Amino acid sequence: MGHPSITILYGSETGNSQEFAQVLGRKCLYLSLNTVVSSLDNFDLKRLLDVKLLVVICSTTGQGDIPRNGKKFWKFMLKKGLPNDLLSHLSFTTFGLGDSSYAKFNYAIRKIHKRLIQLGAHEFSDRAESDEQSPEGNEGYYAEWERLLLEKIKKLSHHEIDPNTLLPPMNGIVAQTNKFKKITSNVKEVALTRFELLTGVIEVNERITSADHFQDVRRLVIKDTSNSLEYKPGDTIALYPSNDPKDVESLIEDQDWQDIADFPLIIDGPTPTIEGGLVKKLTLRSLLTHHLDIMSIPRRSFFMIAHHFSTDEREREKLYEFSLIDNIDALYDYANRPRRSILETILEFHSLRVPVQYVFDLIPTIKPRLFSISSTPSPSTVELTVAIVEYRTIIKRLRKGVCTRWVKELEENDRIKFSVHPNNVKFPPGPLIMVAPGTGIAPVKSIIEQRLELGMQDMYLFTGNRFHDKDFLYGDLWESLASKNQLRLFPSFSRDEKKSYVQDTLYAQSDLIFDLIYNKNATFYLCGSSGKMPIQVRITIETILEDHLGISNEESTKFCLELENKGRYIQETW
Amino acid sequence: MNTLLLLHPTIVTEPHAVEAAKDSLAQKLGTDKSNISQHIIDRVATGQVSLQPSHYNHIQYLAPPEANAKKLPVKCYEIIFEALQSNGVFEGTIPPESATDGILQGFLVESDTRWVKPSTLGSVVSLKRPVGQNKTKSSAFKREMPFFKKLSSPPTLTDSSEADEDEESQLNEKLKGSKLIYFDESSDDEIIDEDELLRDDDGALKGPVVVPVKCALPNGKRRKKACKDCTCGLKELEENEQNERLDAQASILSKLATSANAEAERIEERLKRKQASKEGEEVKFTEQEVTEIDFTIQGKTGGCGSCALGDAFRCDGCPYLGLPPFKPGQAISIEGLGADI
């Protein structure tokens, strides 16, 4: 009799859902289940007819949408003609990754769950909607959900495999040392061989915060020589960063991979999905440089594999401990809090020797980074506003974001790969209230410029920055437009003499805001970082409605939800 | 010679496999390919196609290897039995462990993949029919069987009230074939409004939702992470802690810078003491000397023995936190920390 099988599909934007899917998949393998782990879109949908046990792990993006790597799957699921018994052979459960600061909290997984039931599938273990804003984080929800799920799966399992057993790699690689060596020294050239993507030329890469300000924010202009760009306000550009060759070299040296690093590489078995495709003439070095995220924080799935490869008893024990959900706190202190990278972790565990065929299993792939477009639609150029991420933790060495380090080093006339991602934000006609603290200004700048071109002027901009003279992004532009009455500007500066935040300024303009929303059919567009800001802005709007209408909080909440459903309260936070 | 090829629904998508099977069947039976008729087995099983009784000399069943692991419903064997002439043969990818079903039906099971309809029924030992069927008649049970009972309507997938587990899964297996059409990528179907999915909740999402153990991690501890935009003071606490650690590091690094000098003095001191002491007398270091940061003493690994191993092993509050591990007896090289210090 064959082993029971399970299919685990994930919809992931930043890799969190994928991580959970891989952790669960590994546990299922150790319960000797035939396990398939795949992104929603990479799974051949016909195979759903053979699936008995299905797990869907999915985050929510945009306006309650399914992530990029689940769009194809979702388009199929939404077909009207599907019969209500299509999936009646299938038992499933779902896990959603969400953030309750978004109004459309966990909408993607709710929609998927609902649709699976509509198509006849049966829920066999309780579902979960995790909340990153909760003190337990997504992990806390996952732990409990996984516990319930594994209890049920264990009943199907014929036998459990000893956790000390090393399973064969899922995506093994082999360096062909019998072939000729390849020269991959020109990192930028190699990066350009990803033919699935657009090629652009860096036209401008300038700092737009003052030199004495702590944060470096860049205005990056990319030129498309083919003149074929198509985008709308609200759309995003994906950049495909590469690692610092010095970091890659230190890993290669530490792992004694010098002798194989520059030979052609073949992937043994299924090629993992890599957004934007692999670089051509793959070698271990180019794989580590362009595709494997050695600067990301190691997660539990890393330690689930890594502990097999340490020869030192003490180190092996420690690595294993970090793989356990009960020790998530210790892992948090070791890795997440100080933002320790996989590279640093491998270097620190000196007895850790990774067999090269396991690197794909061990190290997650570099995900493209998405940035809101800050220019008005143009076929030839696109402008981004990128905050360079650099900070210190207890680790002596400066922390740098992989993508922003790469952006910082881009020079004029460098060629890069990128792609355009439509976001389908629709701006109804009528007045537009825009709240855009920090780099939230990017998509707002795009819509303002477009509206000016179209001769629409009913715009109200609430900016939020620290200092007028240091980081008031595009401040000159806003002030000049305001002086020409093409825009009404309400800036907030949190560190200048008269301290204020966007929500304070909004409340100070209570009468105006109320009139615009309630009487003038205005649209409210909120952009910026996720977290407390969007919640506080929403509370402010609700309070304004309550003050003016004398309604209860329940009623004002309902009013805002209706605005949102009509597409007149748009939140774009990251 | 009347020959019938019964096809599993999924094999239909592989026309070359069907043709190959027909060719080899025609060759084996010494008949012409055109004499072989074919049906999809689920259409036969559901009564959408009826087979002429006692008509076929040979019925061949063809299923892909992945599909034949599951048994066919008993009903299928009944129909096949009826459609065969005496001494007619049923062959092919008969699911394993189906022999009992075949015997119950009256077949002579010559092998797992070759069943024969016997000519003289009287010579076949009759096995009891399952409860609920006519079992009052004699051994000539052929007559007891419902003779081409047509189903009033094809069974629906959800109607499994009468089917046992095997039949149910078998039914699914067969209906799978008919469902394949929905996965046709070329069809440009209408799409439902996804926002409608959540607008009126008819209960699909009302079921239990897993919640984490309240404010606690699996080990019962509260998570120590400060929220983004923390207002409760945890963030400041974390920042203070971080600053303390950075100060500790700074002090270690400055000690390292002066350590070459200090080391030289210490050696001199030790030599002096050694000279002063009588031969054989043990040289004792002061407490301060022992705790002095000195990576060059062989075997020294720090107070708790873990400092040298790296952050993963260091105690809370260890002055080395945030610095790379060092091997016992090896000095930390400042270059090793990278250029970003």
TrEMBL record, chain A:
Keyword DNA repair in annotation: no
Cofactor(s) named in the record: FMN; FAD
Residues in Flavodoxin-like domain copies: 6-150
Domain of life: Eukaryota
Chain positions recorded as FMN binding sites: 12-17, 59-62, 97-106, 132
Annotated keywords: Cytoplasm, FAD, Flavoprotein, FMN, Mitochondrion, NADP, Oxidoreductase
Domain FAD-binding FR-type: 195-429
Gene Ontology annotations for the cellular component aspect, listed alphabetically: cytosol; mitochondrion
Keyword Oxidoreductase applies: yes
Reactions catalysed according to its record: 2 oxidized [2Fe-2S]-[protein] + NADPH = 2 reduced [2Fe-2S]-[protein] + NADP(+) + H(+)
InterPro entries: CysJ-like_FAD-binding (IPR003097), FAD-bd_FR_type (IPR017927), Flavdoxin-like (IPR001094), Flavodoxin/NO_synth (IPR008254), Flavoprot_Pyr_Nucl_cyt_Rdtase (IPR001709), Flavoprotein-like_sf (IPR029039), FNR_nucleotide-bd (IPR039261), NADPH_Cyt_P450_Rdtase_alpha (IPR023173)
Positions annotated to bind NADP(+): 439, 494-495, 499-503
Pfam families: FAD_binding_1, Flavodoxin_1, NAD_binding_1
Record localization: Cytoplasm; Mitochondrion
GO molecular function, one term: flavin adenine dinucleotide binding
Binding locations of FAD: 339, 369-372, 401-404, 574
EC number, UniProt record: 1.18.1.-
GO BP field: iron-sulfur cluster assembly
Primary location recorded for the protein, binned into one broad class: cytoplasm
Function, in words: NADPH-dependent reductase which is a central component of the cytosolic iron-sulfur (Fe-S) protein assembly (CIA) machinery. Transfers electrons from NADPH via its FAD and FMN prosthetic groups to the [2Fe-2S] cluster of DRE2, another key component of the CIA machinery. In turn, this reduced cluster provides electrons for assembly of cytosolic iron-sulfur cluster proteins. Positively controls H(2)O(2)-induced cell death.
Family affiliation: In the N-terminal section; belongs to the flavodoxin family.
Complex formation: Interacts with DRE2; as part of the cytosolic iron-sulfur (Fe-S) protein assembly (CIA) machinery.
Protein name, per record: NADPH-dependent diflavin oxidoreductase 1
The species this protein was found in: Komagataella pastoris (Yeast)
Encoding gene, per UniProt annotation: TAH18
Automatic annotation (TrEMBL), chain B:
Keyword Iron-sulfur (UniProt): yes
Subcellular location: Cytoplasm; Mitochondrion intermembrane space
A GO biological process held by the record: iron-sulfur cluster assembly
Region (Fe-S binding site B): 304-318
Binding residues annotated for [2Fe-2S] cluster, in chain numbering: 215, 227, 230, 232
GO cellular component: mitochondrial intermembrane space
Top-level taxon of the source organism: Eukaryota
GO molecular function: 2 iron, 2 sulfur cluster binding; 4 iron, 4 sulfur cluster binding; electron transfer activity; metal ion binding
Domain Fe-S cluster assembly protein Dre2 N-terminal: 2-128
Necessary cofactors: [4Fe-4S] cluster; [2Fe-2S] cluster
Residue ranges that the Swiss-Prot or TrEMBL entry lists as coiled coil: 257-284
Pfam families assigned: CIAPIN1 (PF05093), DRE2_N (PF16803)
Residue positions binding [4Fe-4S] cluster: 304, 307, 315, 318
InterPro entries on file: Anamorsin (IPR007785), CIAPIN1 (IPR046408), Dre2_N (IPR031838)
Motif (Cx2C motif 1): 304-307
Bias (Acidic residues) ranges: 161-170
Key words of the record: 2Fe-2S, 4Fe-4S, Coiled coil, Cytoplasm, Iron, Iron-sulfur, Metal-binding, Mitochondrion
Intervals of motif Cx2C motif 2: 315-318
Region annotation (Disordered) ranges: 151-171
Residue stretches making up the Anamorsin C-terminal domain: 210-334
Domain notes: The twin Cx2C motifs are involved in the recognition by the mitochondrial MIA40-ERV1 disulfide relay system. The formation of 2 disulfide bonds in the Cx2C motifs through dithiol/disulfide exchange reactions effectively traps the protein in the mitochondrial intermembrane space.
PANTHER family referenced in this protein's UniProt entry, alphabetically: ANAMORSIN
Family recorded in the similarity comment: Belongs to the anamorsin family.
Name by which UniProt lists this protein: BA75_00761T0
UniProt source species: Komagataella pastoris (Yeast)
